[in-house]
Protein: Aspartate aminotransferase
Organism: Rasamsonia emersonii
Amino acid sequence: MPPPPHRQLHPQAQQPPHRSAVHAHSQGSTAATTTSSSSSSSSCSSSHSASQTRLSQISSHIMGSTSPSVFTAAHVAQAPEDPLFGLMRAYRQDPSDKKIDLGIGAYRDDNAKPWILPVVKKAEEILRNDPNLNHEYLPISGLAEFTSAAQKLIFGADSPAIKEKRVCCRPAFPSASPHSPVHRQVSTLQTISGTGAVHLGALFLAKFHPAQPRPTVYLSNPTWANHNQIFTNVGLSIATYPYFSAKTKGLDIDGMLGALRAAPEGSVVLLHACAHNPTGVDPTQEQWKQIAAVIRERHHFPFFDCAYQGFASGDLARDAWAIRYFVEQGFELCVAQSFAKNFGLYGERAGAFHFVSAPGADATTANQHVASQLAVLQRSEISNPPAYGARIASLVLNDPKLFAEWEEDLRTMSGRIIEMRKGLRQRLEAKGTPGTWDHVTSQIGMFSFTGLTENQVKILREKWHIYMTKNGRISMAGLNSHNIDYFAEAVDSVVRETTA
Ligand SMILES: Cc1ncc(COP(=O)(O)O)c(C=O)c1O
């Protein structure tokens, strides 16, 4: 097996090998921003590092140390702080009682408090009282009851792949009949939440994609910032396709389709299954069909990231529609699935990675091979996944009564967010705040791309103690009945102040 391309021989090459997909939209993408901020911070820190190195040399000399450092500060540049974690720190340090945190990527209740789902509390109680529970290792591929339930949840219990028993949860454990009309299989491994699932998929592509050089991974512009690092860290090249139209504050479908058509045949296309982060803009079902048609025409490989199933619309099937459609269409694809948001299990790191083989005579064997290699990658990275979150999700997913209660909890979370969207739009429109605000309700899920400029975001933070990412993204979960008036007043004031 050829090794993955190694692109980090020169310091310059440490920057993500970012190629922009054609359009001016692609300028100023998250990746470009990350690149420039990291290079300026590294040059600034290098003189500091040089004096530190000199200091440590003097102290080694005095101390008579015989063990000089290889990883000196001069050799390992200071990495820039993750912007989101920096934002959280700044929020915590702000003493104002008016402060609002709209950067958080976690659900908050109407009192701005973390919410443990009632059904999760019940499942925890069941676990606590289970006399057979122990702390043994899980298998490499995770808890079997969890992975099989995760498959049903994402692909649908009546998915062709599952119904015809063409699904395998464990490596080298074929369940498909080689005589079934269409041979297609799904391999599923439990992962360290959605991030671990994206990473496992990225690593698999970097090691096993047969094309040389490996295909470029196309990310939406903008995307969840971590996508850039996850794919570049395994040595894959990334590029962007236009996604968000600043003009309509909706989907730039023509730009997206054009870039996917122009991308080299066989590229990897990362798609957010629902509740696109950071924009909150999702394609309609008709647009998904157009996207699928282009991906088929260009033989691209769809890589779905699904971090918000059920959290977006409150309807699990609706939020998984795009994935199910692609499976029905016979694509070979993979899915990274997170249970962080829809179960409120953020820190428990429950997730799954699914690889669906394309229909064909070789599918069963191919899928087993994929599963076996995924297991080797998993073993070398984490050995086996954590048990607690998967046990909770598994109890709920496999019990019809608890499942129904979970759906109710999902509706509570998504419903509160939808109410906040309506409330914000209505307040801004009532005030006559310059601009249009219908996108606040047409966008979906945890985040809204408000259209506020970097300067407006800065004023909101400095004058009003309101914290959000500088691209104007707000977490709707940070709004509640106690702060929505204050927020609308702040936005109104800042927009007027900066719109001459
Ligand atoms: C698009 C997207 N993918 C993946 C994740 C991964 O989340 P986690 O690792 O917490 O499951 C997130 C979380 O914010 C996300 O927004």
Q: What stands out?
A: Residues 105, 193-195, 224, 272, 277, 305, 307, 338, 340, 346, 351 surround pyridoxal-5'-phosphate (CB under 6 Å). Residues 137-172+183-398 form a domain with the Aspartate Aminotransferase; domain 2 fold (CATH 3.40.640.10).
